[in-house]
Design a protein that fits this description.
Elements: E1 5-8, H1 13-17, H2 20-34, E2 38-41, E3 55-59, E4 62-66, H3 74-80, E5 91-94, H4 99-102, H5 120-125, H6 130-136, H7 140-150, H8 162-170, E6 178-183, H9 192-199, H10 201-215, E7 219-224, H11 229-244, E8 260-265, H12 275-282, E9 306-310, H13 311-315, H14 317-323, H15 325-329, E10 332-333, E11 336-337, E12 339-346, E13 352-357, H16 362-369, E14 379-384, E15 391-393, H17 403-408, E16 417-422, H18 427-441, H19 447-450, H20 452-464, H21 469-486, H22 490-494, H23 496-505
Parallel strand pairs: 1-2, 6-7, 6-9, 7-8, 12-16
Antiparallel strand pairs: 1-3, 3-4, 4-5, 10-11, 12-13, 14-15, 14-16
Bound molecules: flavin mononucleotide and iron/sulfur cluster.
Iron/sulfur cluster (SF4) is lined by residues 271, 289, 442-446, 449-450, 487-489, 491-492.
Length: 522
């Protein structure tokens, strides 16, 4: 199909969910009927989720974006001349010029949405395997040093320095070591891991292979949540292609070095994203938290030294190696180096993925990218960092998204999930929901979380129903104190963040006075 016009239709689950497969079929049929030659490429998503299905036509002037395209639009788009990039109500012009994309700093997501995710030739044409090639020529200590110097910190939530973790594994002698990728992605409103796995799976494979070379591990597992069947399929295909092409297996690219990979489907519990529960689950047991120490880096999977990193942490490694630590470190602010793929979700007009250097503010993300609320009502509260993250009121939306700055306001950046709520939200209900979530998802190992979350739910219920409200608020604060200080892991230990932030910033929703004024909301 030398003269066929390329049309890109995303194969990402978010696009499939709104009909991308049917749109691809309709395009094929319409083109056949009109006798025009088209080549449909199933690419990853560009992350402009409100425009899915976002179809791109490779016209003479470049890739032109049309969206959201539905089956019934297809005939009209042909009629309007979209194969030449013609104007249409759904046309957004050159994809790369769409401000939402143009204003981003895509490092980890540089390739996502550009190509067929499983095309190895395209992967290499766009810089794929450059980092791995460099790593193959470096001693393990030098790879670890490069990652340390880049300032990369874990993107799964805790922001622990990746290089330091790798160094511990490198320096722990063992007959077997493992690389485990945490792809459980349980946080509310998050999807960046999924987009990488579906949209650029070789990048994750490359990052894990580099981690193996750096630490002396020759086997890796990707623990993917069960709700991600498309990611599982993409990864399995990518692993098999990489093996066939010599990028995985006994002799990586003729180097004599070995690395093998396997995908495991998760057990469907939020706690299985916590690293020690994940290891238990990988070992075939019930996902329950292990006490630390020992650290997984010393006694991890099957008792062996194990690197556990989030998808985005590992997928950020290839560019660090390819372009050097200094290049990566140049992005960001303070001790938060590089970029983070923020995920805009909830009541937001333009939900999607926005990769930017640390330091951007929530207000910029919510309005310059998100376009305000989807409902058209004023935004009131934003939860950042998943279900254990604080609710931020408008007065905090100008704080730069930086790990330390967020700790300073008792919040957390976490995995970069941003869930927006408009002024109809009842924050007392949200606080209660945080406790309920903890009660449902608690692994049951420690008392403050197992019992505390259930009591917390009851106490908030009493507050909402004005049953000895003042006393119950006092009790709630005491309980949060116990959970914060006495829980074995961050599920129980951080549930107080959403609860207390709701109480502190939105007391009127609990029937408490704000600024000395009695509330009228409850
Ligand atoms: C309750 C709970 C759930 C978690 N869920 C995830 C998850 O879904 N994905 C993830 O990468 N990290 C998750 N984490 C963080 C992991 O325990 C761990 O810090 C992370 O896998 C380390 O990788 P990183 O250093 O690359 O971030 C969770 C932690 C807790 C306490
Ligand atoms: S805090 Fe909750 S989830 Fe974590 S170990 Fe304790 S009971 Fe388990």
């Amino acid at each position: 199909m030398a003269d066929a016009i390329k049309i890109f239709v995303p194969i990402d689950a978010a696009a499939i969910a709104v009909g991308a497969n049917e749109v691809a079929l309709a395009i094929e049929q319409e083109a056949a009927q009109r006798g025009v030659a088209v080549q449909i490429v199933r690419n990853g998503s560009r992350g402009l989720l409100w425009l899915e299905t976002l179809v791109e036509v490779l016209a003479p002037q470049g890739r032109i974006a049309y969206g959201p395209v539905q089956v019934e639009d297809v005939a009209g788009l042909f009629e309007a001349g979209w194969l030449q990039g013609a104007a249409h109500a759904l046309c957004h012009g050159l994809t790369d010029e769409i401000p939402y994309l143009k204003k981003q700093q895509r490092l980890t997501f540089a390739r996502v949405g550009i190509t067929d995710p499983l095309d190895l030739v395209e992967y290499q044409a766009l810089g794929g395997f450059e980092g791995l090639k460099k790593a193959l020529a470096m001693p393990p200590e030098a790879i670890v040093e490069e990652v340390t110097q880049s300032g990369l910190r874990g993107r799964g939530g805790a922001a622990f320095p990746t290089g330091v973790k790798w160094k511990t594994v490198l320096n722990t002698p063992a007959d077997q070591k493992y690389i485990v990728c945490n792809a459980d992605e349980g946080d509310s409103g998050t999807f960046s891991d999924r987009m990488v796995m579906e949209g650029d799976p070789y990048c994750l494979i490359e990052g894990m292979t580099i981690a193996g070379l750096a630490t002396g591990a020759d086997y890796g597992y990707i623990y993917v949540r069960s709700e991600y069947p498309h990611a599982v399929a993409a990864l399995n295909n990518a692993i098999s292609n990489a093996h066939a092409a010599g990028w995985l297996g006994r002799d990586i690219n003729g180097s004599g070095r070995e690395f093998n990979l396997e995908v495991r489907v998760g057990a469907g519990a939020y706690i299985c994203g916590e690293e020690t529960s994940l290891l238990e689950s990988l070992e075939g047991k019930r996902g329950q938290v292990r006490a630390k120490p020992p650290l997984p880096a010393i006694t991890g999977l099957f008792g062996k030294p194990t690197v556990i990193n989030n998808v985005i942490s590992l997928a950020s490694v290839p560019i660090v190696l390819a372009k050097g630590a200094a290049f990566y470190r140049d992005y960001g602010m303070g001790r938060s180096k590089g970029t983070l793929p923020f995920q805009l979700a909830g009541n937001i007009k333009h939900g999607g993925l926005v990769e930017l250097a640390f330091g951007v503010t929530l207000r910029e993300l919510l309005y310059d990218f998100g376009g305000g609320s989807a409902s058209g009502r004023p935004l009131r509260a934003v939860q950042v960092g998943g279900p254990l993250g604080a609710y931020l009121p408008e007065s905090q939306w100008d704080v730069p998204l930086d790990y330390e700055a967020y700790v300073g306001i008792s919040a957390m950046v976490g995995h970069g999930g941003i869930v927006a709520f408009d002024d109809t939200v009842d924050m007392a209900r949200m606080a209660q929901y945080a406790m309920e979530f903890c009660a449902i998802e608690s692994c049951g190992k420690c008392t403050p979380c197992r019992i505390g979350s259930t009591r917390g739910t009851e106490v908030i219920d009493k507050i909402r129903n004005n049953d000895h409200r003042e006393q119950q608020v006092h009790l709630l604060r005491d309980l949060c104190d116990t959970m914060l200080g006495g829980s074995l892991c961050a599920l129980g230990g951080m549930t107080p963040y959403p609860v207390l932030s709701a109480l502190d910033h939105f007391p009127e929703d609990f029937g408490m006075p704000k600024s000395g004024q009695p509330s009228t909301r409850v």
